[in-house]
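I have been asked to look over a protein record a colleague put together. Alongside the sequence sits a line of tokens, each denoting a local backbone shape. Please read both lines and tell me whether the tokens look consistent with the sequence. Take the sequence as given and treat only the tokens as open to question. I have pasted the whole thing underneath without changing anything:
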Amino acid sequence: MIKYVILGAVQGVTEFFPVSSSAHLVIFQKILGIGNGGLVFPVVLHLGTLLATILYFRRDILRMAFNKKQLLLTAIVTIITGLIAFPAKGLVEKMFVSPRLASLALLVTGAALILTGRLRGAVKKDVSLPDAAVMGAAQGVAVLPGISRSGVTISALLLRGIDRETCFKFSFIAGIPAVAGAALLDAGDITAACDGSGAFLLAGFIASFTCGLLTLVLLKRVIIKSGLPYFGYYCLLAAAATFIFIK
């Protein structure tokens, strides 16, 4: 049970900190000796952080629900994400059992985050249709373990000249439908897994939700203070250590 709680905590922290939760789940599953269960357990853990996202941004979500432009932007993000992510499911499953492949993808996340340190003067507060399309594409690529969803989507929005607080909110709120959709696609497998591993899944879910909620509070301060490049250097170090020591 404790192993699954640890994985849930790892998911809760790394889903929001831009260091790729999927890569860390791959690495920690290998370290803890947890066998490959496909994408079911990672999806359940993502549901925990999804609930944390909804609770944290509940007021912004309610405002968005009555804003036609925001709904359109979210729809564009979701559609483009789906067009990229759905065909890649087979590759994602293979990468979930390969720490070395995940570490290579983690290098991409690190480079993207370090690049944000060179950005200055982003003041645009309104997200446009092209901005949403760029974020959707970034989010679609982020289904690959090692590519941080928050890292690449926030970096993409920063590159589009959007201010940091808007990037923080839009990245997570507009990502809700994609995460929920992934869970819906795997609903049958999750139900079947609950028959024999329901307690482990629940423990991981609760740990993921709790740690995720706490991490969101910290992350907003990090983004506003332009601290993302530090996570980029961490990603590079983590990728190197994983590639060398974990096979």
Notes: The chain has a mean pLDDT of 84. The chain has 13 helices and no strands. The CA atoms of residues 113 and 159 lie 11 Å apart. The radius of gyration is 17 Å.
